[in-house]
Amino acid sequence: MTESVYKIIELVGTSEKSWEEAARVAVETASKTLKDLRVAEITKLDMKIENGRITAYRARVNVSFKYHG
After folding, report:
1. Sheet containing strand 6-15, strands side by side
2. Is the dihedral of CA 7, 10, 14, 20 positive or negative?
3. Where are the alpha helices (DSSP H) in the chain?
4. Considering the entire predicted model, what is its pTM?
5. In which band, very low, low, confident or very high, does the pLDDT at 19 lie, cut at 50, 70 and 90?
6. How far is CA 66 from CA 22, 29, 34, 58, in A?
7. What are the strands, taking DSSP E only, across the chain?
8. At 1, is the pLDDT very low, low, confident or very high (cuts 50, 70, 90)?
């Protein structure tokens, strides 16, 4: 097995519809500039509230990608 190194970054995705969409937005946006994305881990979910109403769902996501030296 070849040895590998991975970097992990934290992202926050937002959506007006759901936590799932917020996480998807984060990963899809990251995939436009990062190569070899491997794993996404949801670490925290929260909501933005204005005037007693939910206005946004937020997903904090740790994403790992393969490091190429």
Report:
1. 6-15, 53-66, 37-50
2. positive
3. 19-30
4. 0.85
5. very high
6. 23, 17, 9, 25
7. 6-15, 37-50, 53-66
8. low
| Residue 2 pLDDT | 76
pLDDT tens per residue, range 27-47: 999 999 998 999 999 999 999
Fold topology of 11-66: Dodecin subunit-like (3.30.1660)
CA 45 – CA 68 distance, rounded (Å) = 31
Using the structure block, give the residue that is written with the tokens 């995939």. Answer: 31
* CA proximity to 28, closest of 55, 58, 61: 61
